[in-house]
User: Fold this.
Amino acid sequence: MLNKVTFIGNLGRDPEVRRLESGIAVAKFSIATNENYKDKNGEWQKNTEWHDVVCWRSLADRAESQLKKGSLVYLEGKLTHRKYQDKDGNDKYITEVVAAMFRSLERRENSGGYSSPMPTAENAPPQVMSSGGQNANPVSNTPNVVESADDDLPF
Assistant:
């Protein structure tokens, strides 16, 4: 069985972060996704859906520091449904997305590139030459991969 959702959308508000008594961070925000379609008269319509998102722990801290109202974000998570009682004792039901990961798709201010936690040629750690003449990355214990100029990767 699988419970997975993927969104690309804009934040409707800045993440609201609070800390539980145990110190665990919880961030809540909403994401708007848009669907464009032609109606029966052939005119383009835009349908906006709002999704409530919850992030926990370090992901909540990242959301607080990296995401702002209007930010374009790629997000993966799972759908959850829960029931609670309002202050008058009435049962309320809510559907939320519990985020597993997100990536900001906003352009960086000075570089013209997109912000991403993944290293790129511009923000990768410098390579150090080992005595054998091969590149050695002091940050990682993974072997270095020599990239071929003629590889046919689609990205």
About this structure: The chain has a mean pLDDT of 80. Strands lie at 5-11, 16-19, 25-38, 44-56, 72-85, 91-104, 128-129, 135-136. The chain has one domain: 5-135. The longest strand covers residues 25-38.
